[in-house]
């Protein structure tokens, strides 16, 4: 009975302290990820290389079974920059590149769907015309027998 209580107490302690250590690691990873991103951008590097370096660091620090998605990492960097404005004030101008223009993306998706629909409509129209042509050819061939086509038959 005493061993069971000790095991429960150990599991309870692990259950309480494990999430705390993981949260601290996440905060540290996002803070340093933001520092990497902002320092590289401020140093004149392009968005892609700065983003890749920061994202790789955040992903590596997260560990565990599940990896951090690019959206989540971008949100973490944004959060850190906003939360620590005095430290990362120079980096605010670079945040727009982390979150692409959602309106533009929606418009592009809408345009893509419209083009797909037009292509589908053209294909359906082509098939309909082919079917009509086939039916017309069948009618014509039924009207004209071999005798009517033979130019020497009188």
Query: How is the main sheet built?
Result: none
Q: State the low-pLDDT regions, or none.
A: 20-26
Number of helices: 6
Rg, Cα atoms, Å: 34 Å
Determine the mean pLDDT. Answer: 79
Q: What pattern of helices and strands is seen along the backbone?
A: HHHHHH
In oligomeric terms, what are we looking at?
Answer: single chain
DSSP, total strands:
0
Helix and strand composition category = mainly alpha
First-residue to last-residue Cα separation? 117 Å
Shape: elongated
Characterization of the model:
The structure is a single chain. The protein has helices at residues 2-42, 47-62, 70-83, 85-88, 102-143, 146-149. The radius of gyration is 34 Å and the shape is elongated. It has 6 helices and no strands. Helix 1 runs antiparallel to helix 2 (47-62). The longest helix has 42 residues, at 102-143.
């Amino acid at each position: 009975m005493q061993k069971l209580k000790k095991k429960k107490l150990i599991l309870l302690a692990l259950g309480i302290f494990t999430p705390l250590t993981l949260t601290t690691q996440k905060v540290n990873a996002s803070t340093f990820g933001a520092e990497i991103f902002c320092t590289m951008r401020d140093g004149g590097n392009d968005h892609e290389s700065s983003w890749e370096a920061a994202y790789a660091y955040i992903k590596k620090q997260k560990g565990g079974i599940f990896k951090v998605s690019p959206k989540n990492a971008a949100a973490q960097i944004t959060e850190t920059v906003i939360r620590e404005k005095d430290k990362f004030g120079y980096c605010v101008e670079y945040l727009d590149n982390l979150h692409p223009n959602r309106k533009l993306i929606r418009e592009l998706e809408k345009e893509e769907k419209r083009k797909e629909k037009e292509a589908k409509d053209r294909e359906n129209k082509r098939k309909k015309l082919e079917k009509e042509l086939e039916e017309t050819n069948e009618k014509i061939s039924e009207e004209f027998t071999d005798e009517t086509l033979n130019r020497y038959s009188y």
